[in-house]
Amino acid sequence: MKTRWMLEDYPFELDGNANDNRAVYGWRVLWDDEAPPGIDANGAAGSLWSDTAAKPDGPDEDNS
């Protein structure tokens, strides 16, 4: 049986990776205590972070 978790149970902050023109290339998720199960996280307990792309890879939804 797969265990479900709620994101609200894993407090976090977002930090944008942007250039000088404020174009965001990705996001760093800074986990307050721990990352949810199954989420790749780096660092040590109390200082965990995960990186995500600003836009998922794949076809653009606007291109039909």
Strand order of the biggest β-sheet: 1-2-4-3
End-to-end span in angstroms? 38 Å
Give the SSE string: EEEE
**Percent range for β-strand residues:** 35-45%
Structural class, by secondary structure, is: mainly beta
DSSP, total strands = 4
Q: Outline the biggest β-sheet.
A: 4 strands, antiparallel
Rg (CA only): 15 Å
Helix content: under 10%
Quaternary arrangement of the chains shown? single chain
Number of helices: 0
The general outline is globular
Q: Compute the average pLDDT.
A: 84
Low-confidence stretches: none
Describe the protein in words.
With 64 residues, the protein is an all-beta fold. It contains no helices and 4 strands. The chain has a 4-stranded antiparallel sheet with strand order 1-2-4-3, with no helix packed on it. The termini are far apart. 2% of the residues are buried. The model has no long low-confidence stretch (mean pLDDT 84).
